[in-house]
Each structure stands twice: as C-alpha cells, then as structure tokens.
Amino acid sequence: MPGKSYKVLFLGRMFLGLVFAYSGFSKLMEPVENFQAAMAAYEVIPYAIVPFLAHVIPWIEFFFGAFLILGYLPRVSALVLAAMSLSFVVLILTTRIVTGVLPANCGCFGEGGLIHLKPLQVFIMDICNTFIGIRLAFLKSHPFSLAAFFREKSPSGT
Prior knowledge:
Layout: H1 4-28, H2 32-40, H3 50-70, H4 74-99, H5 119-137, H6 146-153
Helix pairs in contact: 1-3, 1-5, 2-3, 3-4, 4-5
C-alpha cells in the first residue's frame, strides 16, 4: 500500500491535472480571440505568434491535465505541465520587468471561467505548479493511475 507521501503526491497530481484540464477546457469553450487578447495584454509575447499560441495552449493544457488526472503518461504529463507553469512564471516576471505592470486578467481560466485570480495569486500558483510538476515527473511510480494499472496487468510486471 502506498505511503503517506504517495497520498500527498496523488493529491498533487489531481490538483495539477484539474487546474490545467479546467484551464484548457474553459478557454476551449470561448472564442479563441478572448485568449488572444489576454495574451496580447502581456505586451512581451511577439504578436505574430499570439494566434498560434492561443490555438495550441488550451489543447495542451486540457489533454495533459486530463492525462495527469487519469495517470496516463503521468511523468511526461507532469513534465509538460511543469514546463508550462515555469513559462508562465517567466512570462509574468518578464512582463513586470519590461512594462512595470501586469494585466488585470491573466487569461488563465478564460473570461467566463469560475476562477478569477489576481496576478500575484497566479504567480504563486504557477511557482507551486512548477514544483509539483517537477516532483511528479521524477516519481517512478504513480499509484491510482492508468500507468500503474497497466504495469500490474503486463506479463512482465515492468
């Protein structure tokens, strides 16, 4: 039976997966222009790539968040989401340094989302998400996951 640390990491996996799955889903349910406007408000992302990023990021968030919840490719999913969280931290810091301010709406959960966070809250959440994701990426066994289920069912058990 998994120890207490595995239970905490399981909760971390659920938290990180739910944050990203919800974030991606909420953006996918709105016009892509909403997220493009939120990204453009940061003023440090080259506008030429904003439309591409606005189309791709919600799908990455949704799929890898759902994968992490299910425990499908948990190490890869955690690493992808940690990298995304770290990129958001860098984006927030860069915007603050370059422009001196942060947009009022981070664009994290879409305009119509149930969650509305202030820039400092988003920054702290992204730092926490980065560390959770890195820790999960280095965890060899993910209890209560599809990966663990399939490993147990495989003939070799590896």
